[in-house]
Amino acid sequence: MKIVIIGQGAIGLLWYRYLSLSNNNNVQLICSKNITRPPKRFTFTSLDNKSEQIDLVTASQESIKSADLILLCVKAFQVVDAIDSVKCTINQSAVIALCHNGMGVAEKLPQRIIKKHNILSMLITHGAKANASFNITHTGNGKTDIGSVYGKLNNHTKERILKTLNNALPNVYWQHSVKQQQWEKLAINCVINPITAINNIKNGQVNNIEYKQEISETIAELVTIAQMEGVNLTSESLITTVKKVASLTAENTSSMLSDILAARKTEIDNINGYIHQLGIHHKIATPQNTFFWQQVNSLEKRK
């Protein structure tokens, strides 16, 4: 399969490494505009702490035109610009997969892209950490849920994509109603990301008793908003999932805390900010999510 990955962050390079292991795949990378001279190799450290140099091929105009699958592994607020940079080059049969935290992005895609392409959501729970530019570590195994956001894939294309992704980095599951999984992942992000970013703590510390009330209120608000959006969730199961993820990634630094420490823009607007905006739309107060959104935005401005 001909695959172009947009984004040289931890998730983009993680998928690049595993997809490029197969001779059946032609995998190339598009870096962000600030990378004027991408390196010929990047450093990858595996789960068993073995480091290796991976050959890196940057995408040409021809490879973009012939791509079967475009993986957008960028921040939520970068998706529209990333699509805009290739929308005149990609062919109509190319499938576009969005791999980002948060929600509210697909609705902002250009109509030209929505009408011409099958758009997928890829929800990834594998752990990956950027140690430095073009230097990443695979920190934990997870899974990938994938499903259609716009368009309708034929069975042949769907099975081909699933087989390619599963052979590279299992396990990958097709979800007929991916919206449910999007909200479940949003719940995890709405808790772990802001609490770690505001308090400058590792993921595992989110399970400390002092954050119990904040977690409960954040999830209760999200469940209410999700119901207004036609998605049924339960607070009990979501809190259990959040605690499990925090435990499994106990020593990890969340992406939001990493962004704050590096003085980068976070995805807070598409996480707790998304709940805040839907609360306004539905005329429902979301004080805890609104507080998290405001606090992280305040931290961003201080950096």
Structure description:
The protein folds into two domains: 2-176, NAD(P)-binding Rossmann-like Domain (Rossmann fold), CATH 3.40.50.720; 179-302, N-(1-d-carboxylethyl)-l-norvaline Dehydrogenase, domain 2, CATH 1.10.1040.10. The protein is built from eleven helices and eleven strands. The protein has helices at residues 10-19, 61-65, 79-86, 111-116, 155-168, 178-199, 212-228, 235-248, 255-261, 272-282, 287-302; strands at residues 2-6, 26-30, 41-45, 51-55, 69-72, 95-98, 119-124, 127-132, 135-140, 144-150, 172-174. The strands form two sheets. Strands 2-1-5-6-7-10-11 form a seven-stranded mixed sheet, with helices on both faces. A four-stranded mixed sheet has the order 4-3-9-8, covered by helices on one side. α6 (178-199) runs antiparallel to α7 (212-228), α6 (178-199) crosses α8 and α7 (212-228) packs across α10. It is globular and about 50 Å long. The N and C termini lie far apart (42 Å). Residues 3-149 form the Ketopantoate reductase N-terminal domain. GO terms for molecular function: 2-dehydropantoate 2-reductase activity; NADP binding. Pathway: Cofactor biosynthesis; (R)-pantothenate biosynthesis; (R)-pantoate from 3-methyl-2-oxobutanoate: step 2/2.
